[in-house]
Design goal:
Largest sheet of chain B: 2 strands, antiparallel
Strand content of chain B: 5-15%
Radius of gyration of chain B: 17 Å
Strand order of the largest sheet of chain A: 6-7-8-3-9-10
Helix content of chain B: 55-70%
Number of domains of chain A: 2
Number of helices of chain B: 5
Structural class of chain B: mainly alpha
CATH class of the largest domain in chain A: Alpha Beta
Strand content of chain A: 25-35%
Number of helices of chain A: 11
Shape of chain A: elongated
Radius of gyration of chain A: 22 Å
Largest interface: A-B, 25 and 17 residues
Structural class of chain A: alpha/beta
Strand order of the largest sheet of chain B: 1-2
Number of strands of chain B: 2
Number of strands of chain A: 14
CATH architecture of the largest domain in chain A: 3-Layer(aba) Sandwich
Oligomer: heterodimer
Distance between the termini of chain A: 14 Å
CATH superfamily of the largest domain in chain A: P-loop containing nucleotide triphosphate hydrolases
CATH superfamily of the largest domain in chain B: Winged helix-like DNA-binding domain superfamily/Winged helix DNA-binding domain
Shape of chain B: globular
CATH topology of the largest domain in chain A: Rossmann fold
Largest sheet of chain A: 6 strands, mixed
Chain lengths: 309, 135
């Protein structure tokens, strides 16, 4: 990819807290003009990654670039082109919804008051209502409006739908989609809500234990992760012969396998174990869980936990 | 008007769900040759989806020859033409049969009854298709 098609680039980005690695040598390109969903356990390193991208936390090793500018030395001009929505939608309770606009207008030269007003309306927030007195979903609406109306080129959101009811959740998704439809806007969104990911994302990145396990287009990811069902249970030695195995569950005399980058070799290896093995359709959740579940077997399958690029 | 519904969380990716439903609407005559589809933007808004997902589904349907894109005017149901080799056509037919028959057989109905149901529905569908093409 050409440099100017990349909104976020990290190279070997690593961060330790004491002796604990929160992020281990993460190399990731987030393309411009697309929605990338960042998925992982709580504590997988997603928030650490976001804080380093925004220059709020220095890396132990490696580097990160935002819109072509090193995260450690972001200029005010670059910062003004980046929208960041922190986890939890923090707002001062005494503030009125319309005052939130005043706060931003002075800092962001491209402030879009019309967009701000229509977002408040969309979330059903009266401009004169006090932030402490509106619902959690409405507060999410105010903070989303504050961010989107700065008209950012790059939008970084840390779990924007956490704790929201289904109505507010849908409103967040609709707001983000409407924003993404404007030309060339990039979104990096951290979330646990896989149904929202299916509606929103062009790409997914899966992070576990501080490592990047998957970085792929959503459609490509689903095509590359395949499920198989075998009418037998078998030992880990046999399983180790299946290339690309990422998950294995055995129950009621059956084995369910999840395999990455399956090809004729994979199929042959599976058929050698059981001639009656058959393909099994997977949901996005199945495929993501296969990566995030603690490995059913150690050592032999660690090789499979490679990037599916 | 064409009614599409998509469900996240299913074992078919959303763009596949769109492809399946448009194909079916064309096969049953619900959509006739020359009918316009909603624009990518309209459908993405209506279904609350990333517009690239809708664009991907349309692109695949155009590649398959189900739809055709007329520059600047939008996307329309295409005249049917053969797009697969005879071998590929047979492979796809077998695949469709397997899905259908394995589901039908789990219902524990007599093979005879399945044959009759297929013949009847085939007659209905082709009649509808011919009438929509004759318009």
């Amino acid at each position: 990819m050409r440099q100017d098609n990349i909104a976020i680039r990290t190279q070997g980005l690593t961060r330790y807290f004491g002796h604990n690695a929160a992020l281990r040598s993460l190399t990731l390109d987030v393309p411009r003009g697309q929605v990338t969903a960042l998925i992982g356990h709580n504590g997988a390193g997603k928030t650490t990654l976001i804080r380093m991208l925004l220059g709020l936390l220095p890396p132990t090793r490696g580097r990160a670039e935002l819109l072509g500018c090193d995260s450690q030395s972001l200029t005010p001009e670059v910062r003004a082109r980046v929208g960041y929505l922190a986890e939890g939608h923090f707002l001062w309770g005494w503030m009125k919804a319309r005052d939130a606009a005043r706060l931003q207008r002075e800092t962001f030269p491209r402030w879009d008051q019309t967009l701000f007003d229509s977002m408040l309306e969309f979330f059903g927030v009266a401009p004169h209502s006090r932030v402490a007195q509106i619902s959690r979903g409405q507060r999410a609406g105010v903070s989303l409006a504050m961010t989107l109306a700065t008209d950012p080129e790059l939008l970084v959101l840390d779990d924007p739908s956490m704790g929201l009811d289904p109505v507010a959740r849908r409103a967040v998704v609709e707001g983000l989609l409407a924003f993404a439809r404007r030309d060339d806007r990039t979104i990096l969104v951290c979330t646990h809500l896989l149904d929202d990911v299916e509606r929103l994302a062009d790409r997914i990145a899966i992070v576990s234990n501080g490592r990047l396990l998957v970085d792929a287009g959503l459609a490509e990811f689903r095509e590359r992760i395949g499920g198989w069902m075998l009418d037998a249970e078998f030992g880990s030695q046999q399983a180790a012969q299946i290339p690309g195995l990422i998950d294995l569950r055995q129950a009621r005399g059956r084995t369910h396998l999840v395999v990455a980058n399956h090809d004729s070799e994979t199929e042959a290896a599976i058929q050698r174990i059981s001639g009656t093995a058959r393909r099994e359709d997977l949901t996005l959740e199945d495929a993501v869980l296969a990566y995030l579940r603690p490995a059913a077997m150690v050592g032999s399958i660690s090789e499979a936990l490679e990037h599916t690029r | 008007m064409l009614e599409l519904r998509v469900t996240p969380g299913g074992n078919r990716p959303i763009y596949r769900q769109i492809i399946d439903q448009v194909r079916q609407a064309v096969a049953t005559g619900e959509l006739a040759v020359g009918d316009a589809l909603p624009s990518v933007r309209q459908l993405a808004e209506e279904l609350v989806l990333n517009h690239n997902t809708v664009a991907k589904a349309y692109a695949e349907l155009v590649r398959e020859g189900v739809l055709e894109s007329q520059h600047g005017r939008g996307v329309f149901v295409a005249k049917r033409r053969r797009v697969y080799s005879p071998g590929e056509t047979k492979r796809r037919l077998d695949q469709a049969l397997n899905v259908f028959l394995s589901e039908a057989l789990t219902l524990d109905v007599a093979p005879r009854q399945i044959e009759e149901a297929v013949a009847n529905r085939l007659e209905q569908m082709t009649a509808k298709q011919q009438s929509s093409e004759g318009e």
